[in-house]
Amino acid sequence: MRRTNWLAALLIAPLLLLILGSFLVPVGLTLFRAVADREVAVALPDTRAVLAGWDGQGLPPEVAFAAVARELAAVLEARRIGDVAQRMNFERTGLRTLLLRTARAGDRLRAPYAESLVALDARWGQRDAWLMLQRAGGPFTSLYLLRAMDFTRGPDGAVSQVAIEERLFQTLFLRTLWVSLLVTAICVLLAYPVAYTIARLRAPWSSVALTLVLIPFWSSVLVRTTAWFVLLQREGPVNGALVGLGLLDAPAQILGTRLAVVLALVHVLLPFAILPMHSVMTRLDATYLRAAASLGANGVQRFLRVWLPLSLPGVAAGGAMVFLLAVGMYTAPALVGGDRDQMVTWFIANFMTRDVNWGMAAALSAYLLAMSGAVIALTRILTGGTVQAGARA
Amino acid sequence: MRDHPLARRLLRGTTALVLAFLMAPMLAVVVLSFSPTELMVLPPRGVSLRWYEDFLTAGRWVLATRNSFVVAIATTLLATVLGTAAAIGLQLGRFRGKALLVTLLTLPLVTPYIVTAASMYFAYSLAGLAGSLAGLVLGHTVVAVPFVLMAVLATLQTFDANLLRAAASLGAPPWAAILRVVVPNIWPGIAAGAVFAFATSLDEFVITLFLAGPGQFTLPRQMYASVREFLTPTILAAATLLFLCSLIFLLASEALRLRSTRKTQP
């Protein structure tokens, strides 16, 4: 027995290490990055040390002014000022220019620094900039998690909503949630009669119909989304047909609208709803139906009181899978959706590649993971089973 | 137990419409890929293979196809070996927390791909793996291996453990017993997992978008770039060829499924 377990451990270890090293640890690092605050500590260690001992009343001592002047000049020299400038600018717009101006002044600044810095930029004479610098000393910050929900922290540490014109993320999460729920509802409503019909069809028709579900299931999400991109063009076949049938006077702009996103998502995710329902329904024991009939239940009663309750686990599994994939889908909304109507995934990609604000990308990822985790937990509680299956999204 | 005729007709009608909705976009792409002109209109005004010729002669599409297959083959090998070994280990071992371990190993399936991709990009950059072929294969393996694990675990449910005891009593060391008794008995499951791993890697897009280097274009990445840049029927030829690949994968997986169910019902 002991030897078998050793063998088992040896067989499992390589995969466990792979998943650990190239998936679990990276995702863990992302979650850590959502709350980590290292930029100031790395770039301005002495300033941070001096400010750590400052009580936050009035202005910090002269050593703090001296340290910040010297260290900013040094990181500019080393071409590593970008990170800390971006970090502070994210705390309050404008701090980037303050830091850059101070760094460039470098050698021209003379003691006493408390005077020369304020002479260079009056903001050094205000408590706010220092308080924010002190708070950015790390090691942890709630800045990104707060901002990803449209909240911010003032210099005094009080949490408040950001200015109305800068609010973005609450709407974004609500929109993502709404589109995902809508797509899930449509998929479940369309999938149920299809799964039911296929489960009750005779061979070989049941196999033929099932194959027509499996073909899209196996083909790539990108291929199917590209198909919609082509079909929905202004001069494309869908517009052509609508105009030809007299339903439209002129071709409509469908690409870049919410309709296009919902259409593509429903198309991509429908098989993930049909297949779990179908598998539950084919394993459904037909004797229950016969028993219900012999007890005098009519067709509607048999369906509502026997078939429907017994098939609900399949509905829950399919619905959960569709919702999970919809909230996490990047390809389809990015390709057929409009720039102003994007989902959380698009913002994560943009923060990663365009803005290079990894803190925000990590915070949004953390919330997205929380949403997915909640759905999985809810499904487990409701059905007592696990959500399994997957997609090449 | 039959449904009311009217209900049945309604249900069948709905089903036919939904199935048509599922199939139509792909069929349209296949038809449009044979278009003789750059105009993508239905019905087509003739048949031509010029976009396939373009696909086969344009350097970037050929390169993308080659990259895709290199990554997919490497991913399939890695995922099949590691996934099969782990599945056999999970079946052999007698220890607690097995369910938790399976959940952990299949977690990449339910994690939003964008989060996986972003995380890999952070971490692989630190390790110097971002933009490398090894990094790309590693990333694809993470999302492909759960399919192998689940396929092999499912087949192992039907494996008769007495065969292992027989092998041991005949003096076979555990390694030999696994390679010469277990693997030959469960190969349809292993092959089905491998097919799924290959298909996953060939179609994978989001992780590739983040992990691939500037020159590492795979077919999906090249398709996405081309669609955003300028839409030509060459993209549809590429899409049709990928679609053809998925049909082959579907056929292979169904054949393997039939084989493994026949084995268990002698």
CATH domain class name of chain B:
Mainly Alpha
Helix content of chain A: over 70%
Number of continuous helical runs of chain A: 19
CATH topology of chain B: MetI-like fold
Strand content of chain B: under 5%
Find the structural class of chain A using helix and strand composition: mainly alpha
CATH architecture label of the largest domain in chain A: Orthogonal Bundle
* Shape by Cα distribution of chain A: elongated
Identify low-pLDDT runs of chain B.
Answer: none
Biggest interface between protein chains, with counts per chain?
A-B, 93 and 92 residues
What is the gyration radius of chain A calculated from CA atoms? 29 Å
The helix content of chain B, as a percent range, equals over 70%
CATH topology of the largest domain in chain A: MetI-like fold
What is the straight-line distance between the termini of chain B?
Answer: 30 Å
E-strand count of chain A: 2
Level-2 CATH architecture of chain B: Orthogonal Bundle
Organism (chain A): Falsiroseomonas frigidaquae
Protein name (chain A): ABC transporter permease
Family (chain A): Belongs to the binding-protein-dependent transport system permease family. CysTW subfamily.
Subcellular location (chain A): Cell membrane
